[in-house]
Design a protein that fits this description.
The chain has 3 helices and 11 strands; from the N terminus they run E-H-E-E-H-E-E-E-E-E-E-E-E-H. By secondary structure, the chain is of the alpha+beta class. Strand 7 and strand 8 form a beta hairpin.
Length: 185
């Protein structure tokens, strides 16, 4: 397994005050099932709704693509990759609020190249993210990037209030073929 990449999103406190109520109230996050699977979730198109705070987060994720791509390609400093970083695009973003007892069954996001999770709120004692059976304790303000084919899940939430934004990134081969841009390192 290629290790996930955890990065700190530089904009924190104000964003966190805005995002949680925005996800819960404004977008009407609703339970997707009746069995506590998946928490309360927004639609998968947050990145298309022209919400300032979400747009800023999406722009930051896009700005991190070269670093994320280099990490998963195993590039060393100065090496050139054989793909266009610009061909990586965010295809989905959604918010999730986990209350006490909510969990997510093991799954992956294949055929997406990379998936990510930005953590808005991580109350003390909340469930960790498990990727390929390895527990990863995330902190508010951190964003984790991992291969879309990695199996991951969340155990039943013991305290509630865990809030995050998830997303998928796809490599669009048609963009790479038609691009006039140079290959990047």
């Amino acid at each position: 397994m290629i290790k996930p990449l955890i990065l700190k999103y530089p904009v924190n406190k104000q964003l966190h005050k805005v995002l949680t109520p925005l996800l819960i109230n404004r977008l009407g996050a609703g339970k997707t099932t009746t069995s506590n699977k998946g928490g309360r979730r927004t639609p998968f198109d947050l990145h298309t709704r022209r919400i300032k705070e979400i747009d800023e987060l999406a722009a930051w994720v896009r700005s991190m693509m070269p670093r994320v791509a280099a990490h998963f390609a195993g590039l060393k400093k100065g090496e050139i990759c054989s793909f266009l970083v610009e061909a990586l695009e965010i295809t989905h973003m959604w918010g999730v609020l986990y209350e006490k007892g909510d969990d997510v069954y093991p799954h992956n996001h294949f055929p997406f190249a990379v998936s990510f999770g930005y953590y808005i709120r991580t109350p003390k004692g909340c469930s960790p993210l498990k990727i390929e059976n390895k527990k990863i304790k995330m902190q508010a303000g951190q964003c984790i990037f991992f291969l879309g084919s990695s199996w991951h899940n969340v155990l039943p939430e013991p305290v509630g209030g865990r809030c995050m934004i998830a997303g998928n990134i796809l490599y669009s081969d048609s963009k790479a073929i038609t691009s006039n841009r140079k290959w990047v390192s």
